[in-house]
Amino acid sequence: MKIATWNVNSIIARQPVVLKWLAKEKPDVLCLQETKCTNEKFPREGFEKLGYAVEAHGQPTYNGVAILSRKKCADVRRGFPEVEDPSHARLIAATVGGVRVVNIYVPNGQSVGSEKFKFKLEWLRRLREFFDEHYWADDRVLVCGDFNVAPEDRDVHDPDLWRGRILFSKPEKDALAEVKAWGFTDAFRLKEERGGFYSWWDYRTGAFRRNDGLRIDHVWVSEPLAEDCARAWIDKEPRGWERPSDHTPVVTEFK
DNA sequence: ATGGTGGATGGTCCA
Q1: C1' nearest to CA of A14: which nucleotide?
Q2: Number of domains within chain A
Q3: Which residue out of A52, A105, A135, A198 is catalytically annotated?
Q4: A48: domain range?
Q5: For a 10 Å CB count at each end of chain A, is N or C smaller?
Q6: Do residues A6 and A245 lie in contact, with contact meaning Cβ atoms separated by under 8 Å?
Q7: Using alpha carbons only, how large is chain A's radius of gyration in Å?
Q8: Angstrom distance, A214 CA to B10 C1'
Q9: DSSP A69-112
Q10: Which nucleotide is closest to the Cα of A202 by its C1'?
């Protein structure tokens, strides 16, 4: 089974490149973040023609997540169990092919110390609690999405420039490490130890041309899935296409 | 120190 994640920065604006990539890569599951539209406005038809069912959890203008799947999705959950702030559509989960897929869009946090930064840390704390409440470490659980945190120096093009800044500050890395300590393994790091692989490049400053990127999009898996992980990689190609997202897909394959 | 670009939206907010 092939499972991928991609922050598309508006699914309406990005439908052409997402369709192109699906036709090329043919994943079983594609998790999307920053769809930026309501479930009613989600452009389903093109994806359904390619054989994908759409499970969306969106809102107007901001955030929004969705799962595209060739196989049937069961037990779809939208948001945390309690009454979540309805202005934040950031989590959708579904069971596909025996895997519990949790697709997340972690708050960006804007700048270290801001109100949005506090919200990001609190959201990550709640996420750890969510896994504690719902799953066992020997379940086949996969969490993927835009985590908005680069975990280590080798995930950042210039760690000394980024150290202490949003996406690479210690409180964020610590909060994300607490989620990981639930029992997750970074699928990408099972297959690649070197630095220089990124999933996001700022639109500004021509970052992509210089490969000035950060690895902030991740696929993490529980132990049973880690044992079955056959491949994991970042597909840089769509970042170079016409009218790209500022993120590119992260792809995994399981036996 | 600031701004650079892109998307939704219709003056700004967000990333």
Answers
A1: B7
A2: 1
A3: A105
A4: 2-254
A5: C
A6: yes
A7: 17
A8: 33
A9: ESSPPEEEEES-SS---TT---EEEEEETTEEEEEEE----SST
A10: B5
